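call fold(seq) -> tokens
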Amino acid sequence: MDYSLPYQDEYGFCKILMSAIGGDGANTVGKMIFELGVNEFNLDGGYDAKYGSEKTGTPTSVSIRLCPDDVEVRTSGPTQSPHILVGFYLSVLKKQGFHKNLPEGATVAINTKLSPEEIRDEIELYSGKIITLDAGKIVDETGSRLNMPMLWLLARELDYPFDAVENAVAKKWPSVKETNLAAFNRAEELYEEQTFEPKEEYKNIQSKEEQPSPIGYENMPYGGSLPSRYFLTQPHPERTHALGIEPQFDPEICIHCGNCVLNCPDPGAIVFEDGAMKGINADICKRCMRCTLVCPETKKGKALVRPSKTKEEAK
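ret:
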């Protein structure tokens, strides 16, 4: 089918960078976007992901380069100055520093309750477009994961046909197709966007992705590491797993089936002793809400449910 990339640099590449934490599904979304481009839209490019630990809520990043299939590949490795920056959490994105390397006219799509104007000041965007979406609200409404509404934002910005993306989602997760598609399509009703002209006080020296050719062992792109020490499951004022409040637990309803323990990605978050569920360790829980999905429904309801208040409201 006929398709043209909405952004291209001087070499013909559209560069995308996603910022998230382990367990959010950003890597799966990135692969889906890349595979659709290659298999459906005759694109080529490169894909690179840094995996964060799902058990500790460690940061992860996904880098995608897309180009027409006749473009010569010039370099490898993750992009440093994306045309489109997708942030699952503002705090994580700022910690990773990805907002500091944006080219003029870049697009930032982010999960937040803040307005585009407020995000512009938070990340000091020189110029470009900001798209905001309260994806957490969609997750609470639908029971899906953050990656579904964020997938909608990225597909929209890339001008991907939504029917192709929806078919890919249904094929990837057939057992939860309706839940995921509900979250995917709900994003259209809640997003906001605004384009900003250059603001001189936010102008900075942008990093450039220049690599001499041919590439060899003496000039290969540098590697890197994730600052996982900041995001371990131990008390720390900037730990990313404290992005909300833990699931609500009702011991009067619990049948102690152990489903929550089997599905929890954070060892120690579920306090299960002597064959009985005792509660949740708030210092370890990453707030992924998987336990609420597998908790069985009894006549009295579920023992584990999504919190009715936000972290701010709970203070």
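Residues 55 and 266 are 5 Å apart (CA to CA).
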